[in-house]
Amino acid sequence: MTPTTVVEIGRNALEITLMISAPLFLAALITGLIVSIFQAATQINEATLSFVPKLVAIFITMIVAGPWMITIMTDYMRRLYEAIPSMIG
């Protein structure tokens, strides 16, 4: 296994990680922004108020995007396992 191969595997792993986590991060970001606007409008300064809506939004996003996320992860793992013989020799 060459250093180039190791770097390529690491780069692919980071790309997959970012691609899979992006919907969850976006859901949390958008929910946090909406809750922050609500808190600013009503002047309610409760730190725990943003936790539950973010949790619910992430849960719903995982339900909606979960099959896609699992497909991406299993395809990547399958490609890694299939590439093991070419990496060894």
Automatic annotation (TrEMBL):
Native organism: Sulfuritalea hydrogenivorans sk43H
A GO BP annotation: bacterial-type flagellum assembly
Protein name: Flagellar biosynthetic protein FliQ
Its membrane topology: Multi-pass membrane protein
GO CC, any one term: plasma membrane
InterPro entries on file: Bac_export_3, FliQ
Biological function: Role in flagellar biosynthesis.
Main location: membrane
Subcellular localization, as worded in the UniProt entry: Cell membrane; Bacterial flagellum basal body
Pfam families hit by this protein: Bac_export_3
UniProt keyword terms in alphabetical order: Bacterial flagellum, Cell membrane, Cell projection, Cilium, Flagellum, Membrane, Transmembrane, Transmembrane helix
UniProt keyword annotation of Transmembrane present: yes
Highest taxon of source: Bacteria
Ranges that cross the membrane: 12-39, 51-70
PANTHER family: FLAGELLAR BIOSYNTHETIC PROTEIN FLIQ
Matching NCBIfam families: fliQ (TIGR01402)
Family: Belongs to the FliQ/MopD/SpaQ family.
